[in-house]
Amino acid sequence: MSRKINRRQFLVRSGGVLAGLTIAGTFTKSAARELFVARPAGDVVIDRVPLGRTGLTVPRMAMGTGTVGGGSASNQTRLGQEIFTAMFRHGYERGLRFLDTAETYGSIPFAGRAIAGLPRENITVLTKMWTRADGSQELEEVRPRIEEYLRQLGTDYIDILLIHCMTQGNWNTTRTHHMEAFTKAKEAGLLRCVGVSCHNLDAVRTAATEPWVDVIMTRINPFGTLMDGPPEQVREAIALARANGKGVVGMKIFGEGKHVTEAEREQSIRHAIHEARVDAMTLGLQSIAQMDDAIDRVVRISAR
Questions:
Q1: Nearest to residue 165, comparing CAs of 105, 211, 222?
Q2: H or E stretch including 174?
Q3: Which of 180, 209, 220, 287 reaches 20 to 30 Å from 173, CA-CA?
Q4: What is the reported pTM?
């Protein structure tokens, strides 16, 4: 468990850049509130980029909501709705108008309340649907879950819906019910793009050539931490996906919080943008100071 520290101790320890706890750390709600510091939005805003050939244009960085996520909770939801919303609204003012959510994180209703009242067309919402290991859900079970996501988000459509956490290369034969249901929902205007979140290199390679896929989420960092293969092999799979017009969103950019020194953050974001060449990335940030640091870093590195 994390122990409570005061803000001055933390800022000294983190070099004055990151306020909050480590990106993958656990914490108490009171500690999170102590370390949460509201700041004016900066002048620099994050840029928007084409997401492959999907037709979507998205911010280069998303607010991740699944740090230590599972059992319908995550570090971001454990912050509470007030802080969750304040973080997103701060990011919104800096161009970070992209939310990465999932059923298993419990973050979909949090996102819905955070975006309430904002122009929906300015915001990209990505969410993910968990499936049984054998993909055995019947087709009629999938559409009601999509409709429940829409209700929780308070919106008429979801920009990107992914099948969550594919760990085998044959996912496109075991998840045909989901693929069919997602396609029908897309045709009905409930979804704009569909795809998969991958935790396996073969799964990424399949997604890179599967015509059904619009968007792939894959783990990438220069250290090979919590990845699906050596960084160079993952980069090859990403290049194949991009050549086929898929949008690619990188995750585990800091190795789930294992690489968050100044030099490691710099190296990780540079690798995602210039070496792996993902279209966008998701970062599980836990304070406004972390968010500002990441936005400033992404903007500066992407401009090189």
A1: 105
A2: helix 171-174
A3: 220
A4: 0.87
